[in-house]
């Protein structure tokens, strides 16, 4: 049956019937199948005479069979165009959504998709109020065709298209003029042939027009919002006046009554039948008239008072609406509007800047790229012949795997028997009756310990109702729920009275002693079930659930593990003395000792200790039950007191290095992420330690009020007392700390409305960080540096939440040869100079003997060519391991140590668990192997990730740059996707002035001219290096280049750039020790000679890596390759 409820209230106390106010409410669930719901509801307040028409309606529907979900809301205010609404519809093939404000659609998305055919089309628009929309459309058809378009009236029009086997193209128009036009051929005869045209001047003009248009639209939208609110104020004021003037006039009633009574009195006195009683009637009528006059007068006086009260009430309501509610609503709307506009303007500015810089770079290389496209087309011609076939085969494999999975699941042995047994097992139990009995017992237990009869009666009736529903007995829901509501009101009143009486008696121990359990038992409730909410903070400060909590559920920032308890705890340490607790408090503590930051106070699973020296963080030490690791400045690490290089792993502790940070992690649930200089440290602790922690970072129970919990269990509000309590050993007490924060102009600018950090304000509260900035500059010698440290601390915290912020420009500078370069400033560099940066990407299966010899010879050969400052960095990977590694020496990335001659023990890639069923295990292994191959083909293998890591290396702009990839496997299984990615990467690195060479086993290597293929060291496009039998140093031989033959021609040729090398690693293992040395010497000398004789002119600019760290990015603007020297080997 339909579930329906209706209600109507009519308020008719006005002079005219048309002015009556009617309130109507309806609710209905029209779903009769029991396989979902279809709920509609509406509330409407109307009055024809008062021109009042406002209300709200909504619906939500879900059908499990048809898999359709819809949701919609609509709110109408008593003002023209004040209509707000949302709508969403989702099915297996359709998605629709729109949102409107002030009766104007500002967001609309419509998509149709067919998962079976792997096709989709979409159409969307976004706009600001009163402006023209941005319209985005597109379509996808499998992996073969796709199209995309985005336009905004006549301002810009972007169109892109991809058609496998034909071409990919992008066309950008702005202000009616073409800005960019590019095409990449994908047909067999012209594969990857590229042609593009960049209109640099038109782009600059368009960028100016875009920024101007954005500002104009923002101003127009703000004005539209202001006009709407002014209209609302005028309308509501008029309706209040109309409502006030429409109440009845009892003065007219009095006059009508007096006239009628005088007429009635005259008729009685003139009646001849009662003439004899004239005197008596006259006296009686006079008395009654006097009495009625008094009653009327009293009634009118009462009415005038009521009318005055009502009038004052309307005035106060109107005044409150105009002076409090409306400004508050406008302020809230303005804050949201400012956030949205800032995001929009920031996005437009970012896109404009990127587009302009890319256009500038493309313009500089337009001719070169067009020439290069012809070479790439020739290079990839053979690849293209089977590229389409590979894509089609890949699609077929995925479909076959899916069908195989369904067949395997359907044919699992005993599946039907298991299903039957499951149904039989649960059929013998009356689950509803057992649950009803359990609920009844629990409620009876509650009832027996309630203090009032009314509350006991309510619980008893609730128990009876729930038992009847659980056992599926017939119940009059309407009558029962009405009865329960009335009993609930009585129960609540009785409990309030009971508590009030207890407060008067001042002795409440008697009743609590009758409870069946102690409150102490609640401490033993599993700490898994914790809530990320502070009820005490809500009651004390009004800091309850807010819009910020809703917006923190960001689509781009979703962390699935953060959506459910136990919630991870996050604490921060900035510049040593600035402590930000797990529960959101801040203190400045300039100590000089060892202090406990965080500790498992119950089971002692871990302890984190900070060593402060005059308020600066000198080191951090993490203890767990298996080992101890100390992290000092510059990434220097010690395990159990012994210095250790990175990466390192001992017991349950692991430490690894990235370019700008070091991470320490223990399996006991603690992760420490710090910048290498320890200015910024983030401490992450598993939510399983909820309320179980002690230390300067607080107890982690989501209650800020008790963060300053002392080791003795007492709570203090004094920073010094709290900090000193967690000192270890004989620590000099810190005193004189103040909670007052003195304002600073520079801090105000860093955390102001115009700062780069403003995008994060609404999602990560910044007050604590701003206060920390005030405290930092108060005592600092270099106040700017101290303030910027806090800005970096806040920006880094925002980045952990996946919020795209950048540190303020005032805090970012690049340093080039000892000179400061402002952010976004350009500068030119000519190479080679005295510096060289060589990054070796290393498969850890390669023998350590080769690695150590290669590193030593690289340093030696580059140094012999007037490059005295040589840095060699190692990045390790293994296909069987999860992660890539940066190897260090004394915490630095410049590797000067010895590569370990023992197997590295790091987390492995998990293979499928054995179930014991041959079919299941075989299917799981095939799925694993297919997934592994797919990851490699898509560029997500361990080797690809290691190369990507090398691409992000912070090369010095004044250094020669070389990446050497050392692989333990050949390119025999290289797919078209991998080859294409490798080719594109080569070209990108070439533009950046980075040389790339590869060392790997070459399949079926042969060489003519009477030479032994086992003596081949390597070759480039124009040269071959072969070891000689005597002591003569090997030289490059151009004559032998055409006589070298090997398997996988396309793959090897692609690994060679214009001046790169490929070296035959398999020959190294066949050589004698002296010849092995000559092999690595020849290899290193070839790379050094190439770098030395290639003269480059680079244009560089200062930018921010990850939005936090200043870094230089360069591209080549001129190249001159000198003739090769006679010998490629150095002395020795």
UniProtKB/TrEMBL annotation:
InterPro entries: VWF_type-D. It comes from the Eukaryota. Pfam families: VWD. PROSITE patterns: VWFD. SMART domains: VWD (SM00216). Residues 569-736 form the VWFD domain. This is CSON006169 protein.
């Amino acid at each position: 049956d339909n579930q329906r409820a209706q209600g109507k209230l009519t308020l008719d106390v006005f002079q005219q019937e048309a002015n009556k106010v009617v309130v109507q409410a309806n609710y209905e669930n029209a779903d009769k199948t029991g396989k979902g719901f279809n709920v509609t509801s509406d509330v409407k307040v109307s009055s024809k005479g008062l021109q009042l028409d406002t209300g709200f309606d909504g619906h939500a529907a879900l059908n499990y069979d048809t898999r359709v979900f819809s949701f919609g809301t609509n709110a109408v205010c008593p003002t023209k165009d004040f209509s707000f609404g949302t709508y969403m519809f989702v099915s297996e093939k359709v998605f629709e959504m729109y949102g409107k404000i002030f009766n104007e659609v500002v967001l609309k998305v419509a998509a149709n998709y067919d998962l079976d055919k792997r096709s989709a089309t979409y159409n969307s628009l976004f706009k600001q109020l009163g402006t023209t929309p941005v319209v985005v459309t597109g379509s996808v058809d499998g992996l073969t065709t796709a199209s995309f378009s985005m336009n905004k009236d006549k301002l810009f029009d972007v169109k892109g298209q991809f058609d496998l086997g034909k071409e990919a193209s992008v066309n950008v128009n702005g202000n009616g003029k073409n800005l960019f036009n590019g095409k990449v051929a994908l047909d067999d005869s012209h594969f990857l042939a590229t042609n593009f045209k960049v209109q640099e001047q038109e782009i600059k003009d368009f960028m100016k027009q875009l920024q101007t248009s954005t500002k104009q639209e923002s101003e127009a939208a703000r004005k539209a919002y202001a006009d709407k609110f002014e209209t609302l104020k005028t309308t509501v004021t008029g309706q209040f006046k109309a409502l006030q003037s429409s109440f009845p006039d009892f003065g007219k009633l009095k006059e009508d009554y007096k006239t009628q009574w005088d007429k009635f009195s005259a008729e009685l006195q003139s009646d001849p039948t009662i003439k004899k009683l004239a005197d008596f009637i006259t006296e009686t009528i006079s008395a009654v008239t006097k009495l009625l006059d008094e009653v009327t007068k009293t009634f009118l006086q009462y009415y005038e008072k009521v009318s005055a009260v009502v009038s004052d009430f309307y005035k106060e309501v109107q005044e409150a609406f105009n002076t409090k509610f409306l400004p508050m609503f406008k302020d809230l709307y303005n804050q949201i509007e400012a956030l949205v506009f800032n995001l929009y303007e920031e996005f437009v500015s970012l896109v404009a800047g990127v587009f302009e810089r890319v256009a500038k770079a493309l313009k500089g290389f337009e001719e070169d790229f067009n020439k290069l496209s012809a070479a790439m087309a020739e290079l990839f011609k053979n690849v293209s012949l089977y590229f389409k076939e590979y894509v089609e085969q890949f699609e077929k494999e995925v479909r076959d795997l899916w069908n195989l999975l369904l067949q395997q699941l359907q044919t699992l042995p005993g599946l039907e028997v298991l299903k039957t047994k499951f149904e039989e097992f649960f059929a013998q139990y009356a689950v509803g009756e057992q649950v009803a009995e359990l609920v009844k017992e629990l409620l009876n237990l509650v009832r027996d310990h309630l203090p009032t009869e009314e509350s006991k009666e309510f619980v008893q009736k609730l128990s009876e109702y729930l038992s009847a529903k659980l056992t599926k007995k017939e119940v009059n829901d309407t009558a029962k729920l009405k009865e329960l509501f009335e009993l609930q009101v009585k129960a609540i009143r009785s409990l309030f009275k009971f508590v009030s009486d207890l407060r008067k008696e001042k002795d409440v121990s008697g009743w609590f002693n009758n409870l069946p359990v102690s409150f102490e038992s609640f401490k033993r409730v599993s700490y898994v079930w914790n809530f990320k909410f502070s009820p005490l903070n809500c009651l004390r400060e009004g800091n309850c659930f807010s819009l910020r909590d809703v917006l923190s559920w960001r689509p781009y920032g979703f962390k699935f593990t953060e959506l459910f308890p136990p919630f991870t705890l996050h604490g921060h340490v900035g510049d040593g003395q600035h402590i930000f607790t797990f529960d959101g408090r801040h203190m400045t503590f300039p100590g000089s000792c060892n202090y406990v930051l965080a500790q498992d106070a119950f089971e002692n699973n871990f302890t984190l200790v900070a060593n402060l020296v005059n308020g600066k963080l000198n080191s951090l030490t993490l203890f767990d039950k298996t080992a101890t690791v100390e992290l000092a400045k510059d990434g220097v690490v010690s395990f159990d007191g012994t210095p250790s290089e990175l990466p390192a792993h001992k017991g349950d502790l692991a430490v690894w290095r990235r370019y700008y940070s070091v991470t320490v992690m223990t399996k006991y649930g603690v992760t420490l992420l710090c910048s290498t200089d320890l200015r910024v440290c983030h401490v992450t602790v598993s939510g399983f330690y909820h309320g179980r922690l002690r230390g300067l970072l607080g107890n982690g129970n989501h209650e800020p009020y008790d963060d300053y919990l002392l080791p003795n269990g007492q709570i203090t509000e004094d920073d010094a007392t709290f900090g000193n309590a967690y000192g270890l050993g004989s620590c000099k007490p810190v005193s004189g700390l103040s909670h007052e924060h003195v304002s600073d102009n520079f801090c105000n600018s860093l955390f102001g409305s115009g700062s780069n950090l403003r995008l994060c304000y609404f999602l990560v509260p910044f007050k604590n960080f701003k206060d920390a900035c005030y405290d930092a500059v108060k005592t600092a010698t270099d106040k700017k540096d101290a303030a910027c440290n806090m800005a970096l601390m806040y920006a880094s915290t925002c980045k952990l939440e996946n919020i795209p912020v950048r540190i303020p420009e005032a805090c970012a500078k690049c340093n080039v040869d000892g000179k400061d370069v402002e952010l976004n400033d350009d500068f030119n560099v000519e190479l080679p100079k005295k510096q060289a940066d060589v990054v070796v990407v290393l498969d850890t299966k390669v023998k350590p003997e080769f690695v150590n010899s290669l590193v030593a010879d690289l340093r030696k050969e580059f140094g012999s060519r007037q490059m005295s400052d040589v840095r060699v960095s190692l990045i390790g990977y293994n296909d069987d391991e999860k992660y890539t590694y940066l190897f260090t020496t004394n915490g630095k990335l410049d590797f000067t140590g010895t590569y370990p001659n023992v197997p590295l023990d790091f987390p492995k890639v998990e293979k499928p668990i054995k179930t014991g069923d041959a079919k299941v295990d075989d299917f799981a292994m095939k799925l694993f192997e297919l997934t592994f191959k797919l990851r490699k083909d898509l560029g997500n293998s361990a080797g690809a990730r290691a190369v990507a890591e090398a691409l992000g290396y912070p090369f010095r702009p004044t250094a020669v740059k070389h990446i050497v990839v050392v692989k333990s496997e050949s390119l025999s299984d290289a797919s078209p996707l991998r080859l294409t990615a490798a080719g594109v990467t080569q070209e990108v690195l070439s533009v950046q002035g980075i040389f790339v060479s590869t060392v790997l086993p070459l399949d079926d290597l042969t060489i003519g001219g009477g030479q032994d293929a086992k003596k081949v060291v390597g070759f480039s496009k124009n040269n071959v290096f072969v070891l000689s039998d005597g002591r003569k140093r090997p030289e490059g031989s151009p004559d032998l280049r055409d006589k070298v033959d090997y398997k996988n021609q396309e793959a090897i040729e692609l690994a060679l750039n214009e001046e790169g090398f490929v070296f035959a690693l398999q020959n190294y293992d066949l050589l004698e020790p002296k010849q092995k040395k000559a092999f690595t010497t020849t290899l290193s000398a070839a790379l050094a000679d190439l770098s030395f004789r290639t003269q480059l002119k680079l244009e560089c600019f200062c930018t921010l890596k990850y939005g936090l760290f200043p870094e230089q990015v360069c591209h080549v603007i001129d190249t001159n390759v000198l003739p090769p020297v006679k010998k490629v080997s150095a002395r020795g």
